[in-house]
Amino acid sequence: MKKRFVLVQGYVSMDNDTLYVENNKHNIVQDLKSKTILPIIAGILLYNIIQKQKFNSTIETTKEIILLGFQWLGLIVIILIIAYLIFKIHWSNKIIINNLKKIEIDNSDDFVTEMTLTTVKNREKHMEFRKLENQLEPFLEEIKKRNSRIKIKYK
Known about the structure:
four-stranded antiparallel β-sheet, transmembrane helix, membrane, transmembrane, four-stranded mixed β-sheet
């Protein structure tokens, strides 16, 4: 049975062993960059490299060698960026509860409580709960039920 808690921007739901963070905040510019512009640029670079190698089977000048090298380097970097964006989005929104090491809670704001989850590998996930909705305490109780080793620290 999944329990669901309301964040400032989105929701966090909880299974027996996993936290799932669902953000309602969509950045259109970032989505366009990661989903359309980078693959288009990668396709253009690959097409350009293939066309140069078809028609110019011999590379004659140093300038052509350097340009071809930069195009290959650019293509590799774009492919790595796309892979990073795909895997980062998947990994950062799914947290295994048993891998959590500590929770830091900052109550300095009047309307929002900021919480930072830290895993065993020192990866951090920041979440914000509204104080008016009283979602923080039930969330912490559910986390404590599933992992009693978590250290909770209030700032």
